[in-house]
Structures are given as structure tokens and as C-alpha cells.
Amino acid sequence: MTTAGGLRLFLDRSTNARRFAEAARDLCPDVQTIGDLYGVLPAETVLDERWIADASAAGRICVGADKAVLSNLLELQAILDHSARYVVFTDNNTPTRERIAQFRAVYEQLIPLAEIPGPWVYKLTKGGLQAVGADVLATRLEQAQARVKQSD
User: How far apart are alpha carbons 152 and 143 in whole angstroms?
Assistant: First the structure.
């Protein structure tokens, strides 16, 4: 197995489960969960924008399972503002054992991502990783802002 080098991961609330965190730690020597950073109970109320900013400032790649990050105004803004790097499973309802298998299957592809500055998102699909670059994220942010304006 290739060593992870500079790969540093941050597991958000959707990937913070004990079994997934243990599996991630078996692969990567530097994994922090949202519960590790803020405490398990306080982590439940930490705003997404805050942990995205904190994890990014610490040089971590965020790992989550809420694909709404690709359409949510505040999360998109945080990703762009803090040059976040984010790997997101495309289905939050995937059983943990399947999620672990998917993560293991793409892990070697994650290692070189540690060297690529953000902002970016990679969707972790059953077929592998799909890049969503800063330009697409900016366009999605504009679309989210337009939706908010229309609803006002």
C-alpha cells in the first residue's frame, strides 16, 4: 500500500460514524473527525461553514456524504472562501460497509489530491472520483444566490 504522505482527512458529521472512522484510520495515518475537533455533542451544532473553515485552515481534506454541499449557498461559499478540498459520497443513505468499500477502492487516488490546492470537490461515486472544479463551484454558488434572491 502506498503511504499517505501529506494526506490529512477530516470526517464531517455524515462520515463521523465509528466504523467508517476506524476504516479511514486503517488506511490513512492522519484522520480527524468532527467529534475529535469539537467534542461529540458540541459537534452536532457546529455550523458547516465553521468546520469547513477550520478543517481547511488545518490543511485537511474534508470527507462527507451530504451532496447538498454542491448546491447549498453557505457551504459553497465556505468552500470557495476557504479554498476547501472536499470529497463527498453522492448518497448519504449508503450502508456503512458499502461506503467503506467505496472509500477503500478510491483511497490510492486520494493520496495525490493532498498536493492539489483548493477549492475543489470530488464526488465519490460507485464508478470512482469525479472532479468538480472551482469554476463549477462558483457557477453553482451564483445559481444558489439567484435562488435565494428569487425567494425573497
Answer: 15
